[in-house]
Amino acid sequence: MSALVRLGALVLTLFSEESAPGRRQAPLTPADRVRALAEAGRLDEAERLARESGPALATSLGEVLLLRGRIAPAESAFSAAIRGNLPGRWTAEAALAELALRRGDRALARRRADAVAAGYERSGTRWPVEDVTAAGRAYAVLGEDDPEAVRAALRAFDAAIAADSSALEPRIRLGDLFLDRYNAPDARATYQEVLTRAPDNARARLGMARVIAFEGRGDGLPEVRRSLTANPALVPALVFLGGLHLDAEAYDSAAVTGRHAIGVDSTNATAWALLGAAALLQGDSAGFAAARSGVQRAHPRPAEFYAAIAEWTARHRRYAEAVTLGREAVALDPESGAGLGVLGINELRVGAMDSGRAHLERAFARDPFHVWYKNTLDLLDRLREFRSISAGRFVIVAPAAEADLLALYLRPLLEEAYDSLAARFEYRPPTPIRIELYGRHADFSVRTAGLTGLGALGVSFGSVLAMDAPSARDPGAFNWGSTAWHELAHTFTLGLTNHRVPRWLSEGLSVLAERRARPGWGDGPSITFLAALKGDRLLPLSRLNEGFVRPTYPAEIQFSYLQASLICEMIEEQWGRAALVGMLRGYRDGRTTPGVIQMVLGMDQEALNRRFQAWARQRFARPLENIAAWDGKSPPAGPLVDLIRSAQAALAGGRAEEAKTLLERAAAIFPDLSGEDSPYHLLARLLAERGDTRAAAEAMGRYTAVDESALAGNATEADLRERLGDLAGVKGALERMVWIAPADPALHNRLAAVGERLGDHLLAVRERRAVLAAGPADPLEARYQLARSLALAGDAAGARREVLRVLETAPGFEKAQALLLELAGRRPEGSEP
What we know:
mainly alpha; Serine Threonine Protein Phosphatase 5, Tetratricopeptide repeat; 45 helices; 3% strand; globular
C-alpha cells in the first residue's frame, strides 16, 4: 500500500478516464500501478511491484526490465507470459518482435510480428485494448519491410482508441507512428489529445518536442525538459536533449546526458551513439572506441549506432566523415534504411551524385514514407534538366533558362572570390567547386534539409555549394552576389579546419568576408541589435553557437551572425588577420575553443567576451547613446527612434523642412543604418521631391553604400546621377542592381549604353550578352546590338559571327547588313570573306 500512497495524483493523471456524470474512477490494477511508476521514472519500485504481483504481471515486468536495459531477463519474462498464455501475452510477443528488430534479426522480428497480426486478424474484434495496441506495434514492425503494414498499424491503433477513448498507450504509439512516417500535423494533434488527458505525460511531451524540431519551429528544448521533469529516466528524451546539446556544440553537456541515458539503459544504441558522437566531434578517439565497445556488447552489428553518429556528424558540417560512417552502417546491415539514407544524402552533399542517388533510392524503397528521401529524389529528377557550365575552378549548375545569365556574372565573381579568400586564409581548397542555384526556394530547401520552408539563402557543404537563384525570391529580397561570396568563404574555413571550425567562427568569418568583398555587402547593425547590445541580451561567446540553433527570440539568429562577424572584425583589427588564420589552424589541429583562444589571443573566453563588449560599445558609442536598452519584448526606443518617427510624421504631414532637420540629425547619429527607415533613404526621397538632385543623389548614395539589397534605392540613385551627368555614378548603381535583380533586360540595355558612353566597351559586350541571356522581347535586335558592341570593343571576328547569326534568321535586317559591310571593310588582307 505504501507504493500506492506515494503515487498520489500522478496515477490519476496517467490513467484517468473521460469524466461523465455519476461515473466513478475505475480501481487501479497492479499492472496500472506498475505502469504509473515506470512512467514516472521510478523503475526500481516498478520492478519490485511487478515481481511482488507474481506471474500474472510477467509482461509488465518484462516491459520494466526492458526500460532498464536488462534484455535477457526481459525476454524471459515475455516468454513466460507467452508460454502461460498470461494476460498481456500479445504485448509480450510484440515486444519480442521489436527486440529482434533492434538486434537486426529481421527474420525473427517478422515471424513474431506475423504471429500477432495473424491472431488479431482471426479474433481481434474480441481483443481488449492492450492486445489491439500490441497488434498495432506488430504491424509497425512489419512496416519496416511492407508499407501496407504501416497502414494496418494505423488502423489497429485507431481501433484501440475507439474501443477506449481514455487509453493513452495507443494514442502515444499512434503519434509516434505518424511522426516516424513524417506526418507532423497528425502527430501533433495526437500528442495533444494525450496531453489534454494527462498534461504531464512524459512520452507525449517528448513527442511534441520532436514535432517542434521536425517542423523547424524551434528545437523543442522546453518540451523535452518538461518530459524529463515528469520522467527523469526516459531514455529517448535524454538522447533528444543530448542531441540538442550536440547541435549547440556543447559536447561536455551532451556526454553527461548520454552517460545518464546509458546509466538507465546500457543497451540503447542511440544513447551510445550520442556518447560516440560527442567523442568523435571532439577528436577523442579513445572515447569513441569506448562507446563503440559499449554498444557492441548489446548489439554485435550496431548499424543504428553508426547511422545516428553519421547524422549528428553531418549536422556539424563534417560530411565526408558522415559518408564514412554511413558506409559502416550499411556494411553492418545492408537493409538499414537509416544507414542507406544518411549515406546517400551525404554523398550528394560531397558531390558524389550517382552513388548518392543509388543509395537514396534503396533507402526510399525500404521507407517510401520518408519525405526527405522522396523530396530529394524528386529534386534529382529536376536537376537533370539543369545546365552545368564548367567555369574555371567552378562548375555552375542552374536552371537552363537562367544558367547563361547567372554564369556571366558568377564566374568572374567566384574566381575573384577564390583568389581573395585564398590570400586571406592562406589556403586553397581543391577544385572544381560545384555551385547549384535553384530557381525555386523550395528546391534549395529540399537540397539543404530535405523539407521545404528553410529560411536560409545558401549553404556550403565544402566543395559543393547550394543557394537560391535570384529568381527564387522577389526582386530586392537578397543580394545573390554576397550570398555566393559568403558560401564560398565557408568552403575555405571548412576546408582549412577539416570541417572542425565551430559554427560561430565560420559564420562570423563568412559575413566579414562579405563586408570585405564590396562596399555595403554583409549585414550591418540595426537599431534593435544595438539595443540588444546595450541591454546585455547578446549571448556570451561561450554560448554563441546556441544563437544559431536554439534562438530564444526570433531576431537572435540574425543577431548571432552579426555578433560573430563583429568579434572576428575586432580580432582582425587588434591582433591582425594572421590571428584568425591561427585560430582556424588551431581547430584543424583538434583544439577546443577555449584552447584556441588561449593559444592565439592569450586570454580566456570570458576575457575575450569582455573585450568585445567594450570594443563594440566604443565603436557604436554615438548611436548607443541615443538608443534605449532592449528588454527583448518591447519595440526599440530612445531618442534616435523618436527622431526617425518624428521625421516620418513630418513627411506625412507635408512639413518638409522640419523632416529634413530631423533626418539630418538622425543620420549624424547613425549614418550606417540600412533598411527602409534609414535616415539617408528618407532624406534622399525628400530632397529629390524638392528638386535638389545633387543632394538627393549624395544622400541616396550614402544609403545604397550600406544596404546590399536596396533595389529601389539604386534605381533612384541611377536616375538622379543620370540627371547630373554622372555616368560613373550611374554605372555603379546599375551594377549594384545586377547583384540584386539581374533578370530585367532593360537593366542590362541601360548599363550597356552607359558602358558605351564611358568607352567601356567590354562592359557593354557583357551587358549585351546579358540581354540575350535574359530573354529580350526582340532577340534579333539584341543580337545585333551585341555584334555592334563587339565591333566597338575590337572583336571583329566575334562581331561578324553574331551579325551572321542575325542575317541567317532575317536576311533583310538592314542594320545588320550595314554592320557586316562595315566589318568587311575592316577585314585584314588575305583573310577569307
